[in-house]
Give the backbone structure.
Amino acid sequence: MSFNARITLPAQARVGEIVEIKVLTRHPMDRGGQSDGKGGTVPRMILNRLTATYAGEPIFRLDMHTGVSANPFVSFTTRAVATGDIVFEWREDGGATYTRTARLTVT
Amino acid sequence: MDPGFPLRYVRDDSRVCGAIGFALALACFVLQPSPAFADIKSGTEFLSPDMRRQQADETRNPAFFWVEQGRELFSRKPTPDGQACASCHAEPQQSLRGAATHYPQVDAASGKLLNLEGRIEQCRVERQGQPAFGYESPELLAMTAYLGSLSRGLPMDVKTDGAAKPYYEAGRAFFERRQGQLNLSCQQCHDGLVGQKLRGDTISHSAGTGYPAYRLEWNDVGSLHRRLRACSLGVRATQFDYGSPEYLALELFLAGRARGLPVETPGIRR
């Protein structure tokens, strides 16, 4: 279980309201460079980008580098426009991606 | 930093000190009597307000990933025709609420001292017929964190009399004994210098009520024994194995000292 995410949104929001979205991620964020015991080094293996789209539009992007701790936490705000899915996508070194979806209910 | 091997040059008792050292040690203990157990404070009291909020907030405390993993392991069958933990321990939120407050405890059948990790491994090997997870494996940490979290907020309540008494006394002796190249006892810092600074950190009462905890230094969840190994390394004393009788006895003594403090597993520590 090297990846997992915990996304927290308000249960519902009014149109035009500013909502806070909290994203806690489980990932070792290995910056690499250690000896692999065979004369080489362990490659870097971090989540290098988190993007979020809401109602089909990108609302947030975070580029991460080796200074970011393991299991990073980030929170950001967006304006509630309509009920819909917020899709989070993480891009890992090596090209793997992880996706999670959270639904924002707007009244 | 936790290299996982004992340092080569260690001195783990006070026999090699001269009489002067012994007299000083004695004077030290007279000047710094043990605080009443009611005065023992949780490690949380020594954290910054922000870290305290982070510990309490499930949306920000990364250790809850381990709790979540433990909850899954608890209800998953290890083999298709095997028994899950939840097959016997149905409704763990009720049936195992408070269980973690009684560990370490003496196992009635074997007479050995078991901590929560030891009990989980015993159940897994003897009742489920599975290979042990192994101390400090992510699975055992997850299970321990999950079972600990079921007792969150309940007061620690271990038995220190009867069959547990010899273990408790051994733990106390360990706590009070000078050891290592720096020739320090646990007590000298964790009773005598509580609240003062050790480099950037504040010395606490060594109540292990938040463990398994997410330690910022580790970037990871670790057991109390991993923390004790770090302490042993710090005073350049012998690092005992995970689950060793020495650390188990010490864990019982610390749990007895922390009687009445709420369980905070999974905690956040520096």
The interface with chain B takes residues 1, 4, 6, 8, 22, 24, 26, 28-29, 69-71, 73 of chain A (CB under 8 Å). The domain at 4-30+44-106 of chain A is CATH 2.60.40.10 (Immunoglobulin-like). The mean pLDDT of chain A is 94.
